[in-house]
Design goal:
Elements (H helix, E strand, L loop, with lengths): L7 H4 L9 H9 L2 E5 L4 E3 L7 E15 L5 E7 L4 E2 L13 E14 L3 H7 L1 H27 L2 H16 E4 L2 E4 L5 H8 L3 H13 L3 E4 L2 E4 L2 H8 L4
Antiparallel strand pairs: 1-6, 2-6, 3-4, 3-5, 3-6, 7-8, 8-10, 9-10
Helix pairs in contact: 5-6, 5-8, 6-7
């Protein structure tokens, strides 16, 4: 199946920058293209890490399940990013589930190719370290937010992260370019669904955001920046 894929799919992506066309061809020949519907899992938390992936199109998020059965969203995976990289963290199983938010297309490689790719392709190794570092930084930021910020500030920060990752300019403002619910936002900001709903309703009245079913548009991003700042 990899032979049906064109090298241009990878040419502009960070893990494969600087590679010759022949090298991209070799990488694609080892890949399998897969399509996933919204609501499905690319892989499940705790399952053997048999493959690693690249998101070509769509939206996927990493989430974990707590002992109480609650879902915690760890991060959003944008197109062009590697995921399922358990081997980079020295793990043999996936530490979280990869849940498809909107119909997505991914490339998958067997995990046995992880070390060969790291050795042969400098850009692949560099982007892997960047991705792991960015996720750790994001995780630390969220821990600090929960520990030190008020609820409104945490919700503002969560929305700003989504805008920076997947914001799309429209005539009405900056739209978060994938389906997101108020429940999702409550999990990302460490608060209740009721609090998120109350906060977004107040912001809508103030003209800061517009939200409807699985859709959020930020109309005044500068106001969100102000709201996200620690007070005092």
């Amino acid at each position: 199946m990899g032979k049906l894929l064109d090298e241009s799919l990878l040419a502009g992506l960070p893990p494969f920058l600087g590679l010759a066309r022949e090298e991209l061809r070799q990488i694609l020949d080892e890949a399998v293209s897969q399509r996933f519907d919204a609501g499905s899992n690319v892989f499940a938390e705790g399952s053997p890490a048999a493959q690693f992936f690249l998101l070509l199109d769509g939206h996927v998020r990493a989430q974990r399940t707590t002992r109480n059965g609650d879902q915690v969203i760890l991060h959003q995976i944008p197109p062009g990013e590697l995921f399922g990289i358990a081997r980079a963290m020295g793990l043999d199983s996936y530490p979280a589930s990869a849940v498809v938010v909107a119909e997505s297309i991914v490339l998958a490689w067997p995990m046995r190719l992880w070390e060969p790719f790291m050795d042969r392709f400098p850009g692949f190794a560099k982007d892997t370290f960047r991705t792991v570092g960015a996720r750790m930084h994001d995780k630390n930021d969220r821990i600090m937010e929960i520990a030190t910020l008020a609820v409104e500030q945490r919700i503002s920060s969560a929305l700003l992260r989504l805008v920076n990752q997947s914001g799309r300019k429209t005539a009405d403002g900056i739209e978060i370019d994938f389906p997101i619910t108020r429940q999702d936002l409550s999990e990302m900001s460490g608060t209740t669904l009721h609090t998120v709903s109350r906060t977004l309703s107040a912001w809508e009245k103030a003209g800061i955001v517009h939200s409807e079913r699985k859709r959020i548009i930020v109309r005044q991003p500068h106001q969100l920046v102000i709201l996200a700042q620690p007070q005092g």
